[in-house]
Each structure stands twice: as C-alpha cells, then as structure tokens.
Request: fold
Amino acid sequence: MYDRRGFSLIEVVVSISIVALMIGVGVPAFRQYGRLASFRQAADDIQLAILQAHNLSLAPEADKSAAENYYGVHLYPDGKYEVVRRCFDAGVSPLCASTTEVVVSRYQLDQSILVETTPAIGYLVGTGGKPVVPTIPDNEIHLRSTQITDDELATIVLIVNPITGQVVIEE
Reply:
C-alpha cells in the first residue's frame, strides 16, 4: 500500500493560485482605501485650519486694539494653505507694527490633491468672530484628488457656515 505524506503538486498549485488571486484583488482595493483616507485627512486638516482661525479671532488674548484685525485662512491652487493674521491699520497694534499680514501657521496638502476653489476665509477680531465680507463664494471649498479613480469619491466639498465658523465635509 502506498503511504501518502504531504500534498500533491495539483493541490499546491491550486492553493498558490487562490492566494495570488486574493492578493491581486486585495492590493488595489487597499491602495484605493489608503488614497481615500489620505484625501479625507486633507479635508479634515483644512477644516481644523478654518476652526483655528475662527477660534483665534474669539480668543481673549487676541489683540482688540483700535486697529481692525482679522484671522483667516488663505488657500492656494498649489495645495498650500495658511492661517494668517491681517491688520488693516498697521502700526497701531504692537503685533502689527511692521507688516499688514502675519502668517500664524503654514501647511501643504499632498501633491495629488487640488484646491478647485481658492477662497480667503476671515473672521474679524473684537466683533464676536463675525466673518469678513465677502468670505467664501457660495460658502464652499472644493477639493479634488487626482489619484482616486471613482469620480464620486474624487471630490470633497467643505461647506463653511459664515456665522458660526462650523465646517461640514460632504463627500
């Protein structure tokens, strides 16, 4: 009688082909998920920058001198965005002695993410965080990813409430 120990060549080939098929399907889906997560994180980062500017305009330590100032977010087409402090009357405030605009913080989006609308969002200091008018055209910021193939998932819209500063992310 023949004593069988181990697997036949056919069983090994079938097992390896099943594993290869699972890897072939799983790796692209996992990469797409990573790109989508990175894209959503970029939208969250812009949301945090807008909230940072709004909170800075409401902060008790914000300069509320005679100079009319504001904190805002400037978005640029190349993916850069900045939280800035602008002084409309330079020289009146000690924080605005030499320049009319000071960059509070500067950020850079991933190169695969495009900012389709580049608004400047601002909140006045000393007025309860009222937005500077005009703030955002249609209150929307459109982001587009060049790496995501599904058109429905490749665009994220951030809707900014100009009164409260609340940012809603719609996908």
Observations:
- The chain has a mean pLDDT of 78.
